[in-house]
UniProtKB/TrEMBL annotation:
Full protein name: Exosome complex component RRP43
GO cellular component terms attached to this protein's record: cytoplasmic exosome (RNase complex); nuclear exosome (RNase complex); nucleolus
Major localization class: cytoplasm
Location(s) in or outside the cell: Cytoplasm; Nucleus, Nucleolus
InterPro entries (UniProt xref): ExoRNase_PH_dom1, ExoRNase_PH_dom2, ExoRNase_PH_dom2_sf, Exosome_comp_Rrp42_subfam, PNPase/RNase_PH_dom_sf, Ribosomal_Su5_D2-typ_SF, Rrp43
Domain of life: Eukaryota
Length: 275
């Protein structure tokens, strides 16, 4: 495994299994904790912790008030940020965001935009005067591959946990008034879920790759779908090309995975909702 890691993996792949005991199409154990179950981000308006095998990601959403942009007077803002601190893996260093963290942040921004999970018009309070800004900080606590799947899952779970207070503008003073006693859940229009694959030897597809599998793979691809089976995004940063048939296979598997993740998140939310 140390001297010839790729050959070591190939021996397992020939038998349609992986060194960790999983089949090629099998995901690692997935868990999610939402909101107060975390007992860790008390300052966030919504939070979630997702574990995908050893990969652990936490997301905190902070809502603030701001004036909308002049060219988007009826829209709020969503600002995602992915952090890969040095504590999550030896490969990352302290300091400004590295290339992988920046790429992940851009990927999350694209998923939000393409899926229309949140319509920015829903974040507007008063046209041209006041809107919500959602700062979505996604921090990796333990990195063992498949960061994108875990990040999208944590973001969705955290956003579903957000409760925004009622805000009105006093007509006489022109100032905003916040009613913390009356809160409403954030409107989530779509529920995007990411499913990632690693490509081995240009032909073989394995789902939910570990960090070691990502390093040995000849390429990766991430498919994002919503609850209607609609394709929201295909993220393929170079590497081996995929045939149309292989890509369709990935999309079919992603739709199945979406149902599993949605079922898990609904179960957790139901368990924490006051009866």
């Amino acid at each position: 495994r140390t001297v010839e890691p790729l050959e070591y993996y190939r021996r397992f792949l020939k038998e349609n299994c992986r060194p960790d005991g999983r089949e090629l199409g099998e995901f690692r154990t997935t868990t999610v904790n939402i909101g107060k179950c975390l007992c860790s981000i008390t300052t966030a308006d919504g939070s979630a912790l997702v574990k995908l095998g050893n990969t652990t990601v936490i997301c905190g959403v902070k809502a603030e008030l701001a004036a909308p942009a002049v060219d988007s007077a009826n829209k709020g803002y969503i600002v995602p940020n992915v952090e890969l601190p040095s504590l999550c893996a030896e490969r990352f260093r302290s300091g400004p965001p590295g290339e992988e963290a920046q790429a992940a942040s851009q990927f999350i921004a694209d998923v939000i935009e393409n899926s229309q999970m949140i319509v920015k018009e829903d974040l507007c309070i008063a046209n041209g005067k006041l809107a919500w800004v959602l700062y979505c900080d996604i921090i990796c606590l333990d990195y063992d591959g498949n960061l994108l799947d875990a990040s999208v899952f944590a973001l969705l779970a955290a956003l579903k946990n957000v409760q925004l207070p009622l805000v009105t503008i006093n007509e006489e003073s022109g100032l905003s008034e916040v009613n913390l006693k009356q809160k409403n859940p954030l409107i989530i229009r779509k529920h995007p879920v990411a499913t990632s694959f690693a490509i081995f030897d240009d032909t073989l597809l394995i789902v939910d790759p570990t960090a070691e599998e990502e390093d040995l793979a000849t390429g990766t691809v991430t498919i994002v779908t919503d609850e209607e089976g609609r394709l929201c995004s295909v993220h393929k940063p170079g590497g081996s090309p995929l045939t149309g048939a292989k890509l369709q296979d990935c999309i079919t598997r992603a739709i199945t995975r979406h149902k599993e993740v949605k079922k898990l998140i609904d179960k957790v939310i139901k368990s924490i909702t006051p009866k």
